[in-house]
C-alpha cells in the first residue's frame, strides 16, 4: 500500500516509528508536511499539490497534526478523504478532541467522569467560578497547552487572579479545574488502537511538581488498568470518534477522571516504556481498514 504520514517533523520519533513499521510490512511510506499542501477543489477531480508537484493518490494517511495547525490539518485530511484515501483520524474527530473544553463537554455529557471544569471568560468575577468547582486550589490551563506548558496550579485567589489576567492579556482561552490532589502528581496514559487498549503507563511528576509530563522531567513505568478503567478508556475513545488515541486520566477518590483524549499521541514514551510496537499496531489497523474498503467497493461495483 501507499501510505502517507502527515507530519511536519520527518525526524520525530513517532513519524520515524510509523515509517519503520510500514516498511517492515512492505508498504511504500511517504512523509507529507500538511502545511505545504495546496488543495484544489472545484471542477474535475480534487487534487493536492505539494510545492509544484501533484501528489499521487495514497491508500491511507496517518495524520500526526500538531496543536498549532489543527484546523489547517483537518482541512487537508478532508481533501484526502475526497480523493478516496482512508484517514486513520477523521477531521471532525481531530477538531473535537483537540479542543480540551469540547472534549470534556462531550465526555461529561455522555456520563464519563472528568475533573470539575469551568470555562474562564474575560470579565467574569473569579470567586464564583472558583467556588463552582469546589474552591481552591485550582488548576488553570490554556486550552492550547501541550507538554504541561500553560498548566498552572494556583493555591491562592491572588495567584489565580494574576495568572488568568496575564494569560488573557495574551489572548489565551482558559479553563479552570478542580485540583485532584490525591493523584499525587501521577496520571495514566493508555494507548488505544482499533478500539483496544494496547499499552498503558503511569507517569509520575518529579518531586515538587504536579504535572506528570515527560517533557517536564516526569518518570514513567508500565501500569495495568483495572477492568473498569479499561472499559472507561475504550468508551471515551469511541465517543470521540477516534480509532487511534492516547487517553490521559487521573486516579481520584471518586474513581478515574478523564483529562484528555489525544488524537495524535506521541509514541516515544509509551513504546520505550512498555516495549509495545504501537506503530506496528497502527499500521495493521490501517491495512485492515483499507482492505475492508476495497472489499466493500469491489462488492458494490459487482
Ligand atoms: N485537574 C488536575 N488535577 C491534578 N493534576 C492535574 C490536573 N490537570 C492536569 N494535571 C497534571 O498536569 C499535567 C498536564 O496537564 P494536561 O495534560 O491537561 O496539559 P498538557 O499536558 O499541557 O496538554 P496535552 O496533554 O494536550 O499535551 C497532567 O498530566 C497532570 O499530571
Ligand atoms: Mg497532558
Task: Explain what you see.
This protein has 302 residues and is α+β, with helices and mostly antiparallel strands. The chain folds into 3 domains: 87 residues, Rossmann fold (3-Layer(aba) Sandwich), CATH 3.40.50; 106 residues, ATP-grasp fold, B domain (D-amino Acid Aminotransferase, Chain A, domain 1); 64 residues, ATP-grasp fold, A domain (Dna Ligase, domain 1, 2-Layer Sandwich). Helix content is 35%, strand content 29%. The chain has 9 helices and 16 strands. The strands form 4 sheets. It has a 5-stranded antiparallel sheet with strand order 14-13-12-15-16, sandwiched between helices. α2 runs antiparallel to α3. The two termini are 23 Å apart. The relative contact order is 0.14. The model has no long low-confidence stretch (mean pLDDT 96). The chain binds adenosine-5'-triphosphate and magnesium ion (MG). The site of magnesium ion has 3 residues, from loops.
CA radius of gyration? 20 Å
Distinct bound molecules: adenosine-5'-triphosphate, magnesium ion
Helix content: 25-40%
**Sheet of most strands:** 5 strands, antiparallel
Features:
Dna Ligase, domain 1, binds magnesium ion, globular, five-stranded antiparallel beta sheet, four-stranded parallel beta sheet, 9 helices, single chain, binds adenosine-5'-triphosphate, 29% strand, D-amino Acid Aminotransferase, Chain A, domain 1, alpha+beta, Rossmann fold, 302 residues
Amino acid at each position: 500500500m501507499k501510505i502517507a504520514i502527515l507530519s511536519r517533523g520527518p525526524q520525530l520519533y513517532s513519524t520515524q516509528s510509523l515509517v519503520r513499521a510500514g516498511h517492515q510490512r512492505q508498504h511504500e511510506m511517504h512523509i507529507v508536511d500538511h502545511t505545504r499542501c495546496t488543495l484544489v477543489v472545484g471542477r474535475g477531480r480534487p487534487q493536492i499539490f505539494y510545492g509544484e508537484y501533484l501528489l499521487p493518490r495514497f491508500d491511507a494517511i496517518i495524520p500526526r497534526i500538531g496543536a498549532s495547525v489543527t484546523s489547517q490539518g483537518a482541512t487537508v485530511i478532508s481533501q484526502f478523504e475526497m480523493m478516496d484515501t482512508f484517514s486513520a483520524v477523521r477531521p471532525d474527530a481531530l477538531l473535537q478532541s483537540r479542543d480540551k473544553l469540547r472534549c470534556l463537554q462531550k465526555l461529561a455529557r455522555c456520563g464519563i467522569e472528568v475533573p470539575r471544569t469551568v470555562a474562564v471568560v474575560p470579565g467574569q468575577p473569579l470567586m464564583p467560578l472558583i467556588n463552582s468547582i469546589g474552591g481552591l486550589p485550582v488548576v488553570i490551563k490554556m486550552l492550547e497547552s501541550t507538554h504541561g506548558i500553560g498548566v498552572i496550579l494556583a493555591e491562592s485567589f491572588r495567584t489565580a487572579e494574576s495568572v488568568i489576567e496575564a494569560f488573557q492579556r495574551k489572548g489565551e482561552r482558559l479553563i479552570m479545574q478542580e485540583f485532584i490532589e490525591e493523584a499525587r502528581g501521577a496520571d495514566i496514559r493508555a494507548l488505544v488502537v482499533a478500539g483496544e487498549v494496547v499499552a498503558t503507563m503511569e507517569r509520575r511528576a518529579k518531586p515538587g511538581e504536579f504535572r506528570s509530563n515527560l517533557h517536564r522531567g516526569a518518570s514513567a513505568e508500565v501500569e495495568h488498568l483495572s477492568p473498569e478503567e479499561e472499559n472507561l478508556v475504550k468508551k471515551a475513545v469511541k465517543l470521540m470518534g477516534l480509532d487511534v488515541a492516547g487517553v490521559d486520566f487521573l486516579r481520584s477518590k471518586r474513581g478515574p477522571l478523564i483529562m484528555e483524549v489525544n488524537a495524535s499521541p506521541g509514541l516515544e514514551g509509551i513504546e520505550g516504556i512498555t516495549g509495545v510496537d504501537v506503530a506496528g499496531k497502527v499500521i495493521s489497523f490501517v491495512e485492515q481498514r483499507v482492505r475492508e474498503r476495497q472489499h466493500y467497493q469491489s462488492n458494490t461495483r459487482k
